[in-house]
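Chain A, query sequence.
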Amino acid sequence: QVQLVESGGGLVQAGGSLRLSCAASGRTISTATMGWFRQVPGKEREFVGAISGSVGRTYYDGSVKGRFTISRDNAKNTMYLQMNNLKPEDTAVYYCAADWSLGGVVVTSAPNYNYWGQGTQVTVSS
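Chain A, predicted structure.
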């Protein structure tokens, strides 16, 4: 059974940095398409970025491009989201997601991912 566990969230001042981790168990992530999404109360879950299986191609939403970086450590079966120059509008619950049926493509739509973590809160103060 696949499980995803996020960690690393917290409170940070604007301009600061955080690194989120998504540890997977039950299946190797090296061939998975994995994504980061975020959600604030009353709004839909929105795409942040994703990394494709095998090749590891990354893609980011325009709101975070240049500030956030996704990486993957296959030996640790863990995906990371390095967040720099954080802004108050980045405040949200961040979720990691994974799917092994998407091939080597990056997918930005949440319903395409079958496995989700429980989320970790990121709060950026101004």
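DSSP finds no helices and eleven strands in the chain. The two ends are 40 Å apart (CA to CA).
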